[in-house]
């Protein structure tokens, strides 16, 4: 039987095999044991002092990336859609962490760090290579943070989740009763009746899986405010979230926020749903409207592209973070 993660094999292969494999640090170091900087490089990049580490820091009032000899400070636009700074490094490599527990990303000879100046220590080499690829793909005229979703998720998993795990789970469970897959259209008009038919066709098999996996079938409703689910289902879902790793919870939270559905997120987590199937469920009602009224260029197409990026990157991050 194929692995559940065969559903995301194509996105993984595209992400990891578009460019040649990254060189191990030892290979890069052997090829260039002592990094050389001429006077022009020194004036443009600044002197390198201390532990020669790179930090991706929190929000700054400045409009572009700033750095000194040991750090790189990304502005608020690092988390949005702006281009920040120019590419200041040549080679991107990965290596085993100093303590032998996890993998790190190197920009030239400097270690990439999180906003709180912790080493970006990743659980698997595959994930480290994928994040290194995001940095490798940056162009000389500027770093584009919006093209690095895996880097963003890694920082969330390493810094935000450990400190706010209880709150993250609490927020997920608070929205659980309004899950997208629990809602049914009224079916009192031609349009809503078509939506209802599709919801029954597409959503019910997933709810049957929930019953098989967690022992309770969710209650469906037509209320805008949702309907309270049975306490036993709420508890078993909450317990399942508590057993996740930080990387897993970060991915589940990201997918649930995008999909407006914890069930879809858990379906991907357990291998019941693939990326394309999940996106079809999320867009079911809107796609029916597009079929009837047409697609708005610059609106629907942009929403679809954004949804594909958000769900795919979180699913790929989830798969790569797992030790095989």
TrEMBL record:
InterPro entries linked to this entry: ATP12_ATP_synth-F1-assembly, ATP12_ATP_synth-F1-assembly_N, ATP12_ortho_dom_sf
Subcellular location(s): the record lists: Mitochondrion
Instruction: Indicate where this protein is primarily found.
Output: mitochondrion
Q: Is Nucleus tagged as a keyword?
A: no
Assigned protein family: Belongs to the ATP12 family.
Q: What is this protein called?
A: ATP synthase mitochondrial F1 complex assembly factor 2
UniProt-listed PANTHER family:
ATP SYNTHASE MITOCHONDRIAL F1 COMPLEX ASSEMBLY FACTOR 2, ATP SYNTHASE MITOCHONDRIAL F1 COMPLEX ASSEMBLY FACTOR 2/ATP12 PROTEIN, MITOCHONDRIAL PRECURSOR
Q: Which GO terms describe its cellular component?
A: mitochondrion
| The species this protein was found in | Dioscorea zingiberensis
Which Gene Ontology terms describe the biological processes this protein takes part in? mitochondrial proton-transporting ATP synthase complex assembly
Name the keywords, alphabetized: Chaperone, Mitochondrion, Transit peptide
Q: Which residues form a coiled coil?
A: none
Chain spans, region Disordered: 26-51
Question: A single Pfam family, by name?
Answer: ATP12
Top-level taxonomy = Eukaryota, Viridiplantae, Streptophyta, Embryophyta, Tracheophyta
